[in-house]
Amino acid sequence: MSDIRTQALACRDAATAIAALDNTARRLLLLDMAQAIDSQTDTILAANEKDMAQAAAKGVQGAMLDRLRLDAGRVATIANAVREVADLPDPVGQVTRRDQLPNGLAIERVRIPLGVITMIYEARPNVTADAAALCLKAGNAVILRGGSEALHSNTAIAAALHVALQKHGIPAAAVTLVEDLRRETMVELLQLADIIDLAIPRGGEGLIRFVTEHARVPVIKHYKGVCHLYVDKAADLTLALDLLIDGKTSRPGVCNALETLLVHRDVAAEFLPKAAAALRQRGVELRGDERSREQVPDMAVASEDDYAAEFLDLILAIRVVDSADDAIAHIRRYGSDHTEVIATTDQGTADAFVHALRSAVVMVNASSRFSDGGELGLGSEIGISTTRLHAYGPMGAESLTIERFVVRGDGQVRHPQSRA
Amino acid sequence: MSDIRTQALACRDAATAIAALDNTARRLLLLDMAQAIDSQTDTILAANEKDMAQAAAKGVQGAMLDRLRLDAGRVATIANAVREVADLPDPVGQVTRRDQLPNGLAIERVRIPLGVITMIYEARPNVTADAAALCLKAGNAVILRGGSEALHSNTAIAAALHVALQKHGIPAAAVTLVEDLRRETMVELLQLADIIDLAIPRGGEGLIRFVTEHARVPVIKHYKGVCHLYVDKAADLTLALDLLIDGKTSRPGVCNALETLLVHRDVAAEFLPKAAAALRQRGVELRGDERSREQVPDMAVASEDDYAAEFLDLILAIRVVDSADDAIAHIRRYGSDHTEVIATTDQGTADAFVHALRSAVVMVNASSRFSDGGELGLGSEIGISTTRLHAYGPMGAESLTIERFVVRGDGQVRHPQSRA
C-alpha cells in the first residue's frame, strides 16, 4: 500500500474518533490546540525562519514573502482564530427537519460530519491551523497538503495541534499533514475516493484547476472572483461611489474585490468623472469601453480579456450599459458566479437583478467586500464555493456537515404481506 | 465545436429560460408534458416496439426485457408520475434563513436552481420523463443520456416533452436527449465542467464507476446498497422477523433491500431457526457464519465476499455478533453507507447505533424498504446519494437546488475610510 493511502486510512479511522466527540469535547480540544500553538511559538517561529531563508534564497520577495512570514503577533492571531472556531455554535447534531408520516414513521434530518476532508493550499501557514480547527469543529478529520515553501512552518504548527490531540486521546492522524509534496502524490491523494469525502483547494487558479482535473473525490472550489458593481440609473450616486471605492481599493488582492464597473448610460456623465477622480487619487488604473471613454477621455481602452479578468490589483474595467438587463447580460457573459452588486433605489430593479443573476452572493446597496464568511455571520470561513453544489458562496463550519435521515418506527413494513 | 458541447451550451441557455419561470408556470408546463405523453401514447408504444424487437434480437430476456417494455398502462403511469411532480411544493425561491447584522445588512439564504443537470441512465424509459420532470420542477434544464437499448422509446418520450416546451415558448434544449451514444461522447459530456453543474448516474455499479472515473463535473451517486438489519438482544423478535421478511423479500432487486442479517448471540437460538424457516418458505438462500450455522445447520457458509455483496436477489448473508458494538463494527467494515436497520426495544442501544453509524439512512424498528424518496415524504425521487455531499440519502426536488446569499444594505462599506 502506498504511504499516502496508509496515511489517509489512518485519518479515516481517526475521523470516527472525532465524530464520537460531543461539542463540549471538541471545544476543549480546540482550546487546547490554541494553547499548544501559543506555547510553541518559539518553535514555530524557528521553523518559519527556515522557510523564509529558503524562500529568500529562491528569490521570493514582496507580497509572496510577506504571506509566508510569521512573527509572535501573527502566531498569537493564529491561536486566537482557533479559539474563535472553538466557540462557534455546534454545527453537527441539529435536527434540521422533523416529519411524522401517516404510517407512524418519525423522520428526522440530522446534521452529521462529512468524514475526511483534504485541504490543498499554498503559502499562508495560518491555513494549517484554521482549516484543522474548522474541520474538527464540524466533527471531521483532515488531511492537510500545504505548499513546499511553508513546509517547516506547517509541520511545526501541526506538531502543536498533535500535542492537543494526544492530550485528548485522539490519534494524531485526525490532523494529517502530508510531507511528501510531489505532484504525483497529490494526484494519488485526490483519487482516494473510497477514503476522502471532500477536497477543498485554496490558492491560485492554476492550483485549483490542477486539483479539479485530477480529483476523483468531490471538490468544492472557486476559480476566481470577477465581481461586478452595476450603478443603476436610479442609484444614489454618493452611495454607489462609496461601494465602488470600498470594493476596488480596500483590499484589491482578494476574491471579493470589484473588478468591473457597469454604469447605466443615464448617469454615466454624472458618475464616471467623479468616480475616475476618486479612484485615480487612490492609484487605480481605469480601462473602459468607448462610451465610458467619452466621459473620461484619458482612460485606456478595455479589451475583451479585461472584462473577464480577476486583476487582483488596482485596475478596474468599466462599461456603460443601456439598461439593467444589459448589465445582467454582461455579468452572465463575463462573470464568475462569485459576487455581484447593484446600487439602486428602485426596489423593482433590485429584485429583477437579484432574480436574474445566479451568482453565489448578490448585494443590493452594499459592498462586495462583505462576501466573506466572517462578515456574513458564518463565523470563520473554510472557503468560498462557486461549485453550486452542497455550498454556494462563503462556507462556514456547517458546510463541512451533511444532513442524513434517521427514521424511527414501531415495526412498519412496506408490504403488509411481508408479516410473518 | 463538438456537437455535444453545442448541445450542452443550448441547454445552458434554456436553463436561464426555465429558471425565469415561477412555480405556477413550471406546474402548467409539467401538466402539459403529462398531457403530451398521454396523447402520444401510440407513437411511444410504436417506438418501444422497435426497441423491444432489437433487444430480443440481441438475446435480451427476462427482467431486463421487462424493464424496457412499455404498454398503454405503463405510459399512463409515466404521465401520472409527471403530474405528481407538477403538484409538489415549489423547491425554489424559499428563504431558508434570514439574518440582520449589527451593521444593518439584511442577509437571506434563498434556494435557486442548480442550472444544468445531466442524467446518465440505463434501460428504463420512464426515467426520461421522471428525471426531466424533477429537474424542470426545480428550475433546471436537463441533458438526458439513456441507454442504447431504449433509444427509440426515449426519443419518442422526449419528443412529447418538447411539444409541451414549445407550447410554453421554452427552447426544446431545456430537455436535451443525447442521441449519440458512443462512450467517448459520454466522456466528453462528463467533462463539460464549465457548462454542466451536476451529473447523476443511475444504473449498475459498472456504469456508475465509469461516470465517476471520467467526470470532471460534480457527480452524486451511490454504487450499491448493502443494507443491514441488526437484531439486538432487546429486540421484539416478531417485529424483527417482519422487518427481515419485508426487507429481504418484498422486492429483492432494489438497492434498499436487505443483504445482511446480524443477530445478537443472546437471541440467535430463538430467532434464527424461525427466520430461516420463514425466509426459505419465500425462496431465500441463506449463507451464514459458523455461529449462525450452529442454529441452522443446513445453511451454506458465508464468504468474506458475501458480506460485501449487494445480491439483488433472494440471498441473505447472516452473522451472529456479540454486541451492538460488534454489529456497528461489521457495518462499518462491509457497509455501503446506504441504509441500516436496528430492531431493539432498548432506546439507549438504538441511539448508540444511530450515532455510531454514519449511513445516509438509519432505521429504528422500521423496514429498510422505506429508504426511498417517496416513502420518506420527499415526493418523487431523482436518486439516492451516498456521496455524503450536497445530499445524503434519498434525493427529491429540493436536492436539485442550492442556497445562495442575497444581501440588502443601505450603503454599508467594509472599510469606513473607503467613503468618498
TrEMBL record, chains A, B:
Pathway entry: Amino-acid biosynthesis; L-proline biosynthesis; L-glutamate 5-semialdehyde from L-glutamate: step 2/2
Cross-referenced InterPro entries: Ald_DH/histidinol_DH, Ald_DH_C, Ald_DH_N, Aldehyde_DH_dom, G-glutamylP_reductase_CS, Glu-5-SA_DH, GPR_dom
Catalyses which reaction(s): L-glutamate 5-semialdehyde + phosphate + NADP(+) = L-glutamyl 5-phosphate + NADPH + H(+)
Gene it is expressed from: proA
Biological role: Catalyzes the NADPH-dependent reduction of L-glutamate 5-phosphate into L-glutamate 5-semialdehyde and phosphate. The product spontaneously undergoes cyclization to form 1-pyrroline-5-carboxylate.
Compartments, as annotated in UniProt: Cytoplasm
Family: Belongs to the gamma-glutamyl phosphate reductase family.
Parts of the chain that traverse the membrane: none
Keyword vocabulary terms for this entry: Amino-acid biosynthesis, Cytoplasm, NADP, Oxidoreductase, Proline biosynthesis
Protein name: Gamma-glutamyl phosphate reductase
Gene Ontology molecular function: any one: glutamate-5-semialdehyde dehydrogenase activity
Top EC class for this record: oxidoreductase
Keyword Cytoplasm among record annotations: yes
